[in-house]
Design brief:
mainly alpha, two-stranded antiparallel ribbon, 9 helices, 2 strands, Transpos_IS110, Transposase_20, coiled coil, Transposase
Length: 187
């Protein structure tokens, strides 16, 4: 979709024949129709499966998790028999790994052993969560104070988001911020 929109933008800037512009616009319209059809099928599938619908509803109580991310997290959670949040985060490739050789100490980076598609799908939810999710915002700020780079803190936010999602699905409870609980108790 983005590729076609870029093609149209370029076609409008340079002198492109009207037929080519119309063809690109038809392609974009066709892609939009196909996206709407597939989203309708996805929504129908969710409606036919009450437990899946409940899981998605619970995940969407987490600030930063929208419909698309909730569907992907549910697919991940149901595709494997994860026994812990750490195991689920490791499967996605969100575990820190030290790169070193002999006496050379390297930097700590994400392992990237898991699914790059799932990691990419968690990037924007983590960006949103660092602003709207009190738990992740507090962790992000703490890591920046400890001289971590913004990308390292964002990687940790992605991992924490997976942990929160796992907890919500495992315990079948609505998300409740621990930061709000701490501030309410005055601790």
């Amino acid at each position: 979709m983005q590729r076609e929109q870029n093609r149209l933008e370029k076609a409008l800037i340079v002198r492109t024949p009207l037929e080519v512009e119309q063809s690109i616009k038809q392609m974009i319209a066709g892609l939009n129709e196909e996206i709407a059809r597939l989203q309708g099928q996805r929504d129908d599938h969710i409606d036919r499966h009450p437990q899946l619908k409940q899981d998605i509803k619970l995940l969407r109580t987490i600030p930063g998790i929208g419909m698309q991310t909730a569907v992907r997290i549910c697919a991940l959670y149901r595709s494997r028999n994860f026994t812990s949040a750490a195991q689920m985060a490791a499967f996605v490739g969100l575990v820190p790994k030290m790169h070193e050789s002999g006496q050379q100490r390297g930097r700590v980076m994400l392992s990237k052993k898991g699914s790059a598609v799932l990691r990419a799908a968690l990037y924007l939810p983590a960006v949103v969560s660092k602003k709207y999710n009190p738990d992740i915002a507090a962790q992000y700020a703490r890591l920046l104070q400890r001289q971590k780079t913004p990308m390292q803190a964002l990687g940790a936010a992605m991992r924490k988001l997976v942990h929160i999602c796992f907890g919500v699905l495992k315990h079948q409870t609505v998300y409740q911020s621990r930061q709000l609980e701490i501030s309410a108790t005055g601790a």
